[in-house]
Amino acid sequence: MRWDNLADSPATSGETALFGASAVTTRTFDTPEFRGITFHEVRARSILNRVPGASRMPFEWTVNPYRGCTHACVYCFARKTHSYLDLDTGIGFDSQIVVKINAPELLRRQLASRQWHGAHVAMGTNVDCYQRAEGRYRLMPGIISALRDYANPFSILTKGTLILRDLDLLRQAAEVTEVGISVSVGFTDRELWRTVEPGTPSPERRLDVVRALTDAGIGCGVLMAPVIPFLGDHPDQLRATVRAIAASGATSVTPLVLHLRPGAREWYMAWLREHHPHLVARYERLYAEGAYAPKWYQRRITRHVHELATEFGIGPSARPGGHRRLPLRPEPPAPAEPEPTQLTLL
């Protein structure tokens, strides 16, 4: 594994992170939910990551406490980031999880800096911060608490039901700052779910999360992603999905067509050849120009979903909040006792 001269992922600040193998603690847990999964615990050097200016993302800053994801979605665009660690972007991405164990205290320190001006922070945009590992490492309560204490606006995108564990913290944060929650549900077809998102909670359970958040007074939108060409884009499938999203009480629905970046593309196409070989040629034509489906196809899906959303009484989502300069900051916490010096990842 290349633990030296590591370049940050495209979704990070672009700085070079240098650390030695001794900075990484590798663990395995012999429990059913973690069998076959290896965790690499590291101490990050920065946790607030700037999104590159050329990105299509509607936000500038992210927090990613994990790299790799046990959700094992075959289409995940973040797979390429594992290659920077000399880890496999297929099975390795699903089973070799990097855990930034100091994420909460590091974030609190960075939020206290005079150089930080309260910009919106997005989470769950690279890998899911509520994947199974979060049940053991519990990084998100500390992260949300820090954002709450500094009244810093943030948003979370997840497929995980574990977010309900932090409901009280989310309520507290929503009282002092802008909090946006979205759940990702691209389809309700259970057979498709079992094959393309094998490590995730079912679409029904995710919609239960939307319902629970809404009942608790926290508005929750649905990112209808990905809409999978030729497998999840039939008009009947789109209708069933939007109907279920509306029934969950979602405040909005925003469709996003499957995109296949390098790393994800190879893994997804291998899956397609195994499970749906008759579709390989159609995909090669549809994605001949690059990672994104043609504009005409994206517009067709978006228009259809928006028409269904109007029919069922919901609409498209608003973009996350923009920059915000805070008028008053709490005093930074007292410095912790010094820890042994250790080189760190990211």
Overview of this structure, please?
The protein contains 11 helices and 13 strands. It has 346 residues and is α/β, with parallel strands linked by helices. Helix 2 packs parallel to helix 4 and helix 4 runs parallel beside helix 5. The two termini are 15 Å apart. The N terminus and C terminus are likely disordered.
Please render the helix and strand layout as text.
Layout: E1 6-7, E2 16-17, E3 25-28, E4 38-42, E5 48-50, E6 61-63, E7 66-67, H1 91-95, E8 96-100, H2 103-111, E9 121-123, H3 133-137, H4 140-149, E10 154-158, H5 167-174, E11 179-184, H6 190-196, H7 203-215, E12 220-227, H8 235-247, E13 253-257, H9 264-275, H10 280-286, H11 295-312
Parallel strand pairs: 4-8, 6-9, 9-10, 10-11, 11-12, 12-13
Antiparallel strand pairs: 1-2, 3-4, 5-6, 7-8
Helix pairs in contact: 2-4, 4-5, 8-11
What characteristics describe this protein?
globular, seven-stranded mixed beta sheet, single chain, disordered N terminus, disordered C terminus, 15% strand, alpha/beta, 346 residues, four-stranded mixed beta sheet
